């Protein structure tokens, strides 16, 4: 049922004048001032409506002897009295008439109240989406009593939201009551005082004594009964407050609404409040807007304060209270004051007012819960929830799961993706509580986390038994000279974490009370011999100096994890006899580990065995009895030739990786390799990783592939870089009915088995860097998520039909640098010819064609601007055709819910279907018909972005890895209705040319305000990371009926292409190994060379490696401007041969060169033009080739300037219009023709 309570934050009602009275009471006929009118006046006063009644004494008191003013009032009141009103007669009860009048007047005067009260709520930000959510919760039958709970952390805006809802809808109720700070008032004045306040407001009495809580409960219920009430109980913190102020639905009259705000979700659940709304913080855009208003009193920061403002925003993390407090504090302060405030926040980052507000939730906890909270704050924040519970259980000796859940319900902790976390300001509040334990002496605090405090304790040996945890996470390596006995006094230390700390020597003592020991770069060769931590559960010593963890047997029954990853000095494992409950043994990267202690076979509870890249291990135990094993990783154990025999059934084994293990004479405990598969096929493997396999034959990989049908429980299959050629992947791959993740990247096959479309549970298909792959088979019916990556598949020419999208909520198709899919959409030649493409679906293929402008195909013109949409069809290329196909497939059966669909393909033109296009990185769309906004036909938005690499290579920085991590496109929009207000799309690979990115966004990200009929606009903006540039973007709202237009476009295009009668295919030019040159007269680099530089070197971007055949880039043309050097007074120009020496680098060490003879040195400048074929340039991911020109022979020549241009097939066609093919033999590249018409007569630059 639609809610009758319509709420919008941005009301259009103008502020009312400040009238002294709301209503004038008048009557005619019999004088009713002492009966009916008096009763009506009393009821209006009770309802909160200020009424003026005709009273001579009142007039005399007000105006005194001013008879003129009195007369003016009499005249005005006479006019008002003549207005129509209500008629009282004897056929109805006066009480009913009074009620009717009061309700009618209340509805008329309420907008005045709302407007006046809302002045205190000016500049609300991000409130619209919250109001819409509450309005949705209010959707109930008019006769129902509705309880709604609003919960969230302190300062998040619960009270503001509840007060605004109250102001918007209170005029619909007989009684509206807002009880503020219920928890605080109850604690300081008592619950009975709250009951008294509530009853007084119901009865409109100044005083109504409540003797005790039970009496107040009874009277509250009696007063509320049969009344339509709006009751807001703000900041409730105890269940008894709800029980005694709003016991149940039977307390209230029909149509009543009770709104409760609290920090504790459990209170709402316990009281049976089913409709609950979690109040969340502001997004970045909203937070910036709110802060700017309080700090600058406008919507943008002052010049020079933007960076400081961003620091404050990072600190506040969307918490409205923090933004208001800090913004108000910084208002009108100079830059020095701002800098001081920011520095203070970094050093002691909690404002006192904010601290007091947030601490209320902490103070409401029992002592044990407080300790759990502080342990999470100082040590366990961000960890997996099950790990947190396991560690806390070992400390407190009981199940702490309930406590963690209570802290989550009280908004002190959060749980996202099964990780325990918290708002940054909640954490700062917890840290401040610990700091207050001892302001001057860090060693007296229970927990340490600051670098200086920890360094002080370790250097001065001032630690005490008060210290419970030490957490030191340094951003970079730091050295410390310390006291090795610093831990001696810390007898109650439970958590010890040290990261990036370099110590001159190891500890002589560690407390036995430690539960978690996590120490990167641990300096000693072993743990202290007297260290007997019988309660320890985790030992994590990454990159340590350990060569043997301990000597002999240690009985540590609670130890579940040993992680010594990348401890390169480790040569042997400990004796496992005394640690029978070990569940995870991680020795990855221990390259000198030789011996595995035989007692490992007795670890019956071991779940994870990770020996990855332990390349010195030669053998493993012949038999393993660990029937709890779930994951085994032996990849990179290159000297292991014998695979252990599993004695137990191993029913839980789900992941196995043995890529890169020894392949010569591979056996299983004396048997040949075949038995590996004979018993592996009986396991319920969920993950099989065989990546980076060597090509030694026979290799177990070939046998595994031949037996894929036995691995029907596999969920993940990794065959990355396994040298798989055409036909290596069998049709049996379609039998992997449980497969979700398939990685076939960096292999050499040309096609994939058609049976891949039988993988109905597949979610991720990785084909990156399969450079010989030419086509994809039909894709399976993805469900849920769909991720297909085929970046750098430079031979890929054919794509399948897009998959059905009705069952998807997230889709990502990446075809970055797949140049064979779509050539440049259109190139014009000087002879009036243009290049077209020939696309096909099912399958997309491309052929270059040359078509005369005046050609017509069965009456179908080539299109013009006046052709409307059909003309646009002709202007669209292959990339547009792919995008149309995706849109068509999407609209044929849109998914009921989706998050985001995205596809990236090569292309340099946004399709004409996107009517709203804008140069640059932002675009605006205006919706004038908001009735259509709420139409069920509106699905969402389609956005198209044209982007490419930045022309300036310096923008990439010196770090080559930056290019592989900085390729992302982010999108944001405003105004914001619901979060999120943006997203980031990762491209993962270096982008070498222009690409198009299509995004499909759901309508839920932008919902028009209720009742907005004046039209609205939405601004979308895009941002690319350093190596990319957004060139253009387009947008169009998606409606279901758009599928008809898309069908028309595609049908028209297919018809025009199939009907085309004549075309001339330009063949691929034969490759030439020949570099040649030619000399010209000239005193400057011709304008034809698009890239020039002063001096003797010039740099040019390399087209992708398939461009020689697909984009028709056939090489480079380099132009060197040189002249005679000064030879002294005699000007004796030596007649013997001089040379221009050209060499080029396309990698860090790849160098090629060429010598150009200059037979005669002239006084005037000359040009040396060199033609370098593409196959002379070693193609690297560096993307650039640098040409250097030097002089050889006598010092007669001087290089002055250089230019370069990539030579495309189109350049050749342009200068030889009659040339439709290349000769079978190329001599000097057939002189390119006529040296590009003598370099266009060597036209010079202005």
Automatic annotation (TrEMBL):
Residues 856-875 are annotated as: Disordered. Keywords: Hydrolase, Leucine-rich repeat, NAD, Repeat. It comes from Rubus argutus. PANTHER family: LEUCINE-RICH REPEAT-CONTAINING PROTEIN, TMV RESISTANCE PROTEIN N-LIKE. The keyword Amino-acid biosynthesis does not apply. The keyword Metal-binding does not apply. Residues 864-875 have a biased composition (Acidic residues). It catalyses: NAD(+) + H2O = ADP-D-ribose + nicotinamide + H(+). It holds the Pfam family WHD_ROQ1. Its EC number is 3.2.2.6. This is ADP-ribosyl cyclase/cyclic ADP-ribose hydrolase. One of its GO terms (biological process) is signal transduction. Residues 19-173 form the TIR domain. GO terms for molecular function: ADP binding; NAD+ nucleosidase activity, cyclic ADP-ribose generating. It is an enzyme of class 3 (hydrolase).
